[in-house]
Amino acid sequence: MPAKIPATVVTGFLGAGKTTLIRHMLENANGKRIALIINEFGDLGVDGGILKGCGIEGCAEEDVMELSNGCICCTVAEDFIPTMQKLLDRPDAPDHIVIETSGLALPQPLVRAFNWPEISTRVTVDGVVTVVDGKAVVEGRFAHDVAAVDAQRALDDNLDHETPLSELFEDQIACADMIVVNKADLLGEEEAGALVGRLRAESRDGVQVVKATMGALPLDVLLGQGIGAEADMDARHEVHHHHHHDDEDDQDHPHDHDHDHDAFESFVVAREEIADPAAFARQVAEVIRAHDILRLKGFAAVAGKPMRLTLQAVGPRIDSYFDRPFGADPRETRLVVIGQAGLDRAAIDAALRA
Question: Which of the listed CATH numbers 3.40.50.720, 3.30.1220.10, 3.40.30.10, 3.90.640.10 matches domain 264-353?
């Protein structure tokens, strides 16, 4: 059976920066074929228009599909499932699907929809990314322009829920596998650190909380989480059983776009053969927890084994498997470490070599 196509759900309030994050992702896709499903309202069509007209190489107009019949969590059967089937049936299937929800949408009903028989064997939820406006949340507003959120909520005739912003925020955090504190450049270091700590405390174990400016996240951080969220609904239950606001997204503050990946760093750790793969996986997990590493990937040479051991870690969750013989390649262990700027490279290197 062919491998399931991974899909990433991007959720968050109006103005949090979802479209900016997605645009940055497309500009740095490096040949990965990404299809977008954009949840629009009425005839606003702003997000889809921005992304279709982006002029980004590899982002064709047919790769952007819009849902304009209301809040995606309220129109799953009528709108989302047929759109997903159409996308999956294309002869040139995408490598990855990214779904930008309306800011009024709860992510939970959408994630559950991936268990529908029509699509369950063909696609899986790689992860749920919740984008928050760091400045607004610190100020207790959750959204940059609350009046705009309320005005857009009034436009959606299909909306079957009325919930305070604070409760929707809790639901979006409850479903997240990664929380992006966007507009971090508008916060002081102490404010940003306190918010990151608070969101970590309010989210499930293993949820990654990262800071970003203008949605600039490396592709290796944003995609490839491999969560399979649709099989993990009990852990990401709705705190409040309604739904919520609308969104197109996003008029970020007028800063330049040269932030790129300055807030993140990566480096390679090389070491000799390992003796015990299970013990090494535990060692790697401990290093990840101790140093707040976001991703770790690479391969290891195992003493007495001709095959190369591949390792991939998202947070402390590690997958490993033997993929191919080393052949003429040097028998060594090489791991790429990815995290936010400020990693203690010397300590991480020493711990992984121990």
Answer: 3.30.1220.10
